[in-house]
Design brief:
Layout lengths: L1 H6 L1 E2 L2 E2 L5 H17 L1 E8 L2 E8 L14 E9 L5 E5 L1 E2 L6 E2 L5 E2 L1 E5 L1 H7 L4 E3 L7 E5 L9 H6 L15 E7 L6 E9 L3 H10 L9 H11 L6 E9 L17 H9 L19 H9 L4
Antiparallel strand pairs: 1-2, 3-4, 4-13, 5-6, 5-9, 5-14, 7-8, 10-11, 10-12, 14-15
Helix pairs in contact: 5-6, 7-8
Amino acid sequence: IGAVHDLYDFDGNAYTGLTDESVDRQISQTEAFLAAASDMDLDIIEDDLRVTITNWSGHKLPTGFPEGRRMWLNVQFLDAGGSIIEEFGEYDYGTADTDLVGTKVYEMKLGLDAEMATATGLPEGETFHITLANSILKDNRIPPAGFTNAAFEEIDAAPVAATYADYQHWDETYFNIPVDAEEALVTLLYQTSTKEYMEFLRDTAPTGDDDVNLGHVAYDAWVNRGRSTPVIMDSQVIEINPSFNPADVNQDGEVDVNDLLLVIGDWGCTSNCTADIDGDGNVNVVDLLLVIANWGL
């Protein structure tokens, strides 16, 4: 929206009716919608980090025109000093280059089949020519709540190159945890227009009657507005090897009511006691006080 405003604002006359203030306000609203569209959950499953993204948007996530939009996971595994050991989904904010090897990208990819390729003279396979594309090569976007395969097949909107069970509106991705990793920082990113798509417009758009190449105009506007800087939809940190806390009886990472209930359930135990926090062979008021003292840790 900022790029459109720039293109149609000549000498302070905004032909779109937009102002700098209204553009900034709408960008903020869009970012708020994106942040509310999904939830992220992180879990350690043996030697893997499991990232679960749940869609609460009411439509496929991400939605909209498919040729330049995508959502992906950036995962950084950090050592004890906070240095990156391994990273997936790295984005270069200076060049808009993205390394997507090994990560999950949620997107829709269109293509030309053999017949359409022959008719147009364009290569068969993936294409950014949205008006010519007649096949879907990939659509792993997360379905909304209430999703069923039959209903989406009926409207030609079923997942492609991805599988979702009926009523599944979430997706799980697993990353192998490298040796010496102490923390993982996981960020869900959304981008409106990729570098690949904008370069396609720049390089393939025809020149109009006024000798203006609109592809170049669109590309320059994209560059001037920050190259569709990715929006952070969610970001979380998880400890890989959290320090042991004996008051965390069930070892779920937090001392809370569940640990209190385990102490009460083990009350009076004198042999092989799960809730013997202080290790004196008895579950008694001392163990109860230790839970209270560590509450919330």
